[in-house]
Amino acid sequence: MVLRDVTPSSVPSGDGPDDVLLEMMRMHAREHLADPHLRVEELARRHHVSVRYAYSLFARIGTTPGAYLREQRLLAAQTMLSDPRCARLGMPEIAAATGFRNLRTFERAFRRQYGMTPGSWRCEHCHPGSTAATLKQEMPAR
């Protein structure tokens, strides 16, 4: 039932059905990071498994479904913060674009994961000549 809507070319390679299902769940999570409603329960429902079974699948890679979602969202945020094309986006927009409903939750999770605030990350990873570096120079000191 899990594979009913999947074409053979879109099935990731794996050692068995559980590996294929886990990879499909991981792929779904990466493709829908911006959806703030994507939670463990929704991920399990979408793949026609119980929440408990979803936890057992993710345990195979040493994590939980929730931790995997958070990690992927933070990696996406980190990428956006380092991308000069996203330099004009504020923290609330980046938080929303990566599936965080609350700016404070985003900032706290980012600091816990990377040891610095999203704003500090952006400043340290701006490339000279990028829009973010220019904006930083234009902003008056507080």
TrEMBL record:
Keyword Transcription set for record: yes
A Pfam family that the UniProt record links to this protein: HTH_18
Keyword Methyltransferase: no
InterPro entries cross-referenced by the UniProt entry: AraC_XylS_family_regulators, Homeodomain-like_sf, HTH_AraC, HTH_AraC-typ_CS, Tscrpt_reg_AraC-type_HTH
Keywords of the record: DNA-binding, Transcription, Transcription regulation
Entries under SUPFAM superfamilies matching the protein: Homeodomain-like
Residue span(s) of domain HTH araC/xylS-type: 23-124
PANTHER family found in the cross-reference section: ARAC SUBFAMILY (PTHR46796:SF6), HTH-TYPE TRANSCRIPTIONAL ACTIVATOR RHAS-RELATED (PTHR46796)
Protein name per its UniProtKB record: Helix-turn-helix transcriptional regulator
Species for this entry: Pseudonocardia yunnanensis
